[in-house]
Backbone:
């Protein structure tokens, strides 16, 4: 927990005031793109990691680079570049929400998660869960967080379209999956016993694998209890630097939300619906369709959250 506190202290300070209001748009399946100006991270390409040796070293850097020297060493610094990042709109009907994600990022399987590279780190993601009315008293927001993880929070934040709960999470890597360096591989039973084993053979050398790294995540959990649903926006990375590099994109991702109406079924039996008297709330409207009946929940607009 101490490690988590150190890593996320500055990130907490920078993240709490990041939220602004966003304007609502008409719900519907709309595929559009928008652009945001993003600063590409500066890369330090070290030529020498001995500061003393750097004193008399002449650095010849290529185009778009400039020499640098720091306490670690010296090398060439790639100049900061600004580039536009396009977004695509995605409406998720079953979650009653519309979001915007980076259009050129790679989707991770069937998950609603995207990464700038195919390896999947760093990553932005969205998920949701249904919380039935009878379960709401027992439900806790931390249930949305990864299991077997340490976390700090919640911190109340204002997203403009709704208030949320911010959590900072450290997911411990499963070190048990790494092979024991002292465990030898068994000999090949299919080998010819008449042949003398080669003493330089690698078959009995220990298996050594790199330890899997810990993961760090930011989760913003939005309970929409009147609609019996909870949203979770999250960012994942190997370290604080990666999280900071995608911070502007994470903000855009969360602020792009438009809430849509949700059908809350009281019964999924059309015959039973003929004998049901629906008692819907003020922001709801009764409905009857071929799949059943219930109340259509509309986003509440009577409260505007703004900094």
Residues:
């Amino acid at each position: 927990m101490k490690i988590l506190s150190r890593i996320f202290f500055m990130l907490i300070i920078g993240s709490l005031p990041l939220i602004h209001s966003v304007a609502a748009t008409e719900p519907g399946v709309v595929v559009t793109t928008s652009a945001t100006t993003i600063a590409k991270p500066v890369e330090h390409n070290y030529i020498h990691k001995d500061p003393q040796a750097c004193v008399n070293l002449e650095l010849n850097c290529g185009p778009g680079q400039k020499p640098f020297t720091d306490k670690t060493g010296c090398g060439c610094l790639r100049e900061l570049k600004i580039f536009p990042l396009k977004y695509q709109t995605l409406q998720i009907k079953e979650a009653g929400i519309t979001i915007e994600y980076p259009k050129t990022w790679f989707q991770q399987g069937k998950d609603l998660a995207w990464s700038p590279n195919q390896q999947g780190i760093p990553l932005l993601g969205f998920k949701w869960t249904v919380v039935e009315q009878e379960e709401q008293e027992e439900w806790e927001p931390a249930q949305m967080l990864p299991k077997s993880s340490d976390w700090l929070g919640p911190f109340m934040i204002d997203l403009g379209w709704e208030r949320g709960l911010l959590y900072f999470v450290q997911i411990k890597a499963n070190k048990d999956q790494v092979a024991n360096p002292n465990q030898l591989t068994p000999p090949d039973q299919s080998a010819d016993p008449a042949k003398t084993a080669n003493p330089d053979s690698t078959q009995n050398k220990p298996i050594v694998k790199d330890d899997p790294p810990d993961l760090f995540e930011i989760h913003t959990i939005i309970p929409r209890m009147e609609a019996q649903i909870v949203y979770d926006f999250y960012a994942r990375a190997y370290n604080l630097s990666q999280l900071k590099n995608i911070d502007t994109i994470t903000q855009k991702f969360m602020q792009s939300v438009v809430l849509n109406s949700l059908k809350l079924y009281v019964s999924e039996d059309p015959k039973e619906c003929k004998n049901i008297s629906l008692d819907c709330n003020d922001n709801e409207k009764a409905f009857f369709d071929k799949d059943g009946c219930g109340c259509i929940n509309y986003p509440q607009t009577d409260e505007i959250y703004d900094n």
